[in-house]
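Section 3.1: Structural characterization of target chains.
Under the original work plan, the team committed to producing a structural model for every single-chain target entering the pipeline before any wet-lab resources were allocated. The record below documents one such target. The sequence was received from the expression subgroup and is listed exactly as submitted; it comprises 403 residues.
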Amino acid sequence: MVRIEDTDAERNRSEWTEMIWKDYEWCGLIPDKKYIQSEHLARHTELLQKLVSEDKAYISKEPSKDNSEKEVELVRFRNPGTTVTFNDSIRGDISFDTSELGDFVIARSLTEPLYHFAVVVDDADAGVTHIIRGEDILSSTPRQILIQEALGFTRPQYVHLPLILSKDRKKLSKRNDVVSLEDYRNRGFIPEGIINYLALLGWNPGTTEELFTIDELTERFSLEQLQKSGAIFDDVKLKWFNHEHLKKLSSLEYEAKLKEFMERHGERAPDYLIDIVPELRNRAQTLGEASEALRAGEFSFMEKEITIDPLLLVQGAKADSETIKKHLLAVKEMLGGMPETFTAEDAKEKIFPYATEVGRAAVLWPLRVALSGKEKSPDPFVLLGLLGKDISAARVAQAAQLL
């Protein structure tokens, strides 16, 4: 169950709620029940009236904060001023002297409950056994326990998680940090990588393992392995997790995800995308980086026609034109003896010994330029594997003719 806590109407918007549901759907975490707090106002009012009738709370007429000449009626909890002790699964037994809280406000009126009151009622009605939340909410626990006791509710088990911190060891903030799931989605992260990384911020499986599926996390997670200290959020490490989960995708799965990502950003994937998925999947840590590589033309050598600059063929070869031409023709001859379908490793096994014997720079540099038309590109064996026998042989022959 996911509960939307919307007692503060001024700080809630329907579009924000809708965004939360979309985030859950994107992550593959579909709530079995959606609970909107404001839809249970009648129940909150009923129990507020009960506390007032039992003199455990009272209506207090006070000056308005906005206008001192105007009075407002608040509902205050009649605090018994006792010491509250509760057990936290991470921090052990914790005690608070509640007398310093005074008679705290639990509602703006009988029909406007505040968060502290509404969540106590909702937790009890939903049968919540464990309240797992950030340690920044720890100070609100005594108020909620006093309300629980006044209403006769069973106390749940508390678990206050360590906060996720920025690199300067401060609490992550909307102003200074990227904290929106939508932002990460737009950068090309996938839910599997994000969930895996977040699960390990504050939790340790007890082994050196790092990569987990959602099902594996569900099976392995336990409260006993949570840590007390705050975890540092590291964007570099998040990218690593994302990349590892991208590499687990099949070529068809990767292609589908990248196409969807590019279409959402108004871009069209090239027809040859499926052919370069292995290379993209190995290089790009996010779908955004893969999309950028395509947009920058890093794989334009996959187009039907390319331009080969004769000067570039010679530039890094450390040999004269005649020697380079001889080596290119030798490579073309080798390609002719290879099967119709081969891998980058097959090509390397065939050509690399020759390049080592006569001079790698004189063979591999012009071969790479001949295949890609670029100064910078994947190594020539990767290019051969991507382009295939016929296209590769034709480009090598074309380059030789230019010399």
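DSSP finds 17 helices and twelve strands in the chain.
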